[in-house]
Amino acid sequence: MANNGVTRVFDLSATPFFLRGSGYIEGTLFPWTMCDFSLMDAIECGIVKLPRAPVTDNIPGGEMPKFRNLWEHIRT
Length: 76
Hints:
single chain; little secondary structure; 2 helices; elongated
């Protein structure tokens, strides 16, 4: 193994726990987890953006989304 000067590696995972089928107990934190920071706390602290739920933009008879056919607006 080459010595490249790396002394620490930080894994910033959005899912710091084992999932079903992983071979470990589902929902248990990775053993190397130092802090389990909730999404709500991260949003309130401004660390992550507020998740947005997708909206239906193809309702028949509804208003066409502004940039649905972007190329038609920018090609010229």
